[in-house]
Amino acid sequence: MAQALIPVAEARARILAMLTPTAAEPVMLANAAGRVLAEDVVARRTQPPADLSAMDGYAVRAADVASVPARLRVVGEAPAGGAYVGTLGEGEAVRIFTGAPVPQGADAIVIQEDTERYGDIVIARESAVPGRNIRRAGLDFKEGVTGLVSGRKLSPADIAFAAAMNQPSLFLHRRPRVAFFSTGDELVRPGMPIGPNQIVSSNNDGLAALIVEAGCVPLDLGIAPDRREAIRAAARKAIGADMLVTLGGASVGDHDLVQSALAEDGLDIDFWRIAMRPGKPLMFGRYRNIPMLGLPGNPVSAQVCALLFLVPALTKLQGGEATAPHTTLARLGAPLAENDRREDYLRASIDHMPGELPVATPFPKQDSSMLSLLSTADCLIVRPPHAPAAEAGELVHVMPLRF
What local confidence, expressed as pLDDT, does residue 254 receive? Predict the structure, then answer.
């Protein structure tokens, strides 16, 4: 079964076009960080609700302290959480604390450092214009305004903002449940007995970590042997998940059985070959109406493809704005040969120098089985198809792996 290689950007666009964000659910503020809003957040109160003192000091009439030193009679106190209920008259002052309502008749605050107190008399040593050290009602926001917009991924500052708007809970997109399994008779889980022809599987644990980091719920279905019925049985366990990811077996070799096994069980393939390195055998379609992404079995290929395709997909499932991974400019630290028709993602180190662009140096070896290099890498150098040979010092685009 032949299929032309499709570009990375087209593959990502086709994946995203097939996805629909999860439904909304109410979530308490304490559990909302990193989640995506499913509804706008509207302020339920005005903040500040009244004119409040911004400092500890004395509430006064600005006219009474236009000329200093000014002698004023202290007629009361306004603590935070309390208020002075009278109206301030000529020549009077009220002891006030940060956050307390400004008394009627007062229009300025003289800070306590600029005063001297003698019993019920206070001497103001500094003048104050109207509005000095007062936070006006509605300075931050007013009741009824939209403070946070649907689709926003919530930061800790957003959570504090929502709390100030008197919202104890928010409607957020449900965390997507991502089911996944590896295929291969040669694979065993870490710590299990290893046969003479077997290797330790790293993909399940690496993918689970990526799914958690993306804000979703991993459902590890284990390792399926290279038998069609075993692969179908593993895939059926994903029913009810929001996405299914397979690891390995996405090509069409004699032992790559995922396509053929699941095609007989409800899999509708969209594409399965990408013009990229590492990771050409990447598959996407729907399995029994569940979006399904088939990642390559090589560990580095699986991780790189997950960053390029799975992470944006999970962002969209959560209701966020799904885009291509962030890239930035760097200078090349070593020469590179011309590229072929596939978009290349080269593991590289980054050296930062003050006032200059960083230098990205590709590792001499780029074998897709070498996880040690991916763990060490600071970035991926992104080379377009048919890119000409490049000398050290030339500009390249890099995709940061560490922030």
Answer: 47
User: CA-CA distance, 223 to 186, in Å (whole number)?
Assistant: 10
163-178 pLDDT tens trace: 999 999 999 999 999 9
Helices (H), 285-346: 299-305, 311-317
Domains defined along the chain, listed by start: 8-22+175-317 (3.40.980.10), 28-42+146-173 (no CATH), 52-135 (2.170.190.11), 328-400 (2.40.340.10)
Q: Which two tokens stand for residue 26?
A: 């109410």
Alpha carbon of 330 to those of 252, 348, 380: distances in Å?
Answer: 38, 11, 11
Convert the pLDDT of each residue in 44-102 to its tens digit.
999 999 999 999 999 999 999 999 999 999 999 999 889 999 999 999 999 999 999 99
Classify residue 30 as exposed, middle or buried by CB count within 10 Å of its CB (0-12, 13-18, 19+).
exposed
| pLDDT above 60 (res 223) | yes
Paired tokens of 315? 């962002």
What is the number of other CB atoms lying within 10 angstroms of the CB of residue 251? 18
Give the number of residues written for the chain: 403
Per the listing, tokens 């708007």 go with: 165
Query: What pLDDT does 4 receive?
Result: 79
Cα distance between residue 362 and residue 12, in whole Å: 25
The DSSP secondary-structure symbol of 80 reads: T
> How far is residue 138's CA from residue 142's CA, in Å, rounded to a whole number?
5
Q: Supply the pTM of this predicted model.
A: 0.87
Mapped onto helix, strand or coil, the DSSP state of residue 223 is strand
Alpha-helical (H) ranges within 214-298 are 228-236, 258-263
Q: pLDDT by residue (tens digit) across 333-349? A: 999 999 999 999 999 99
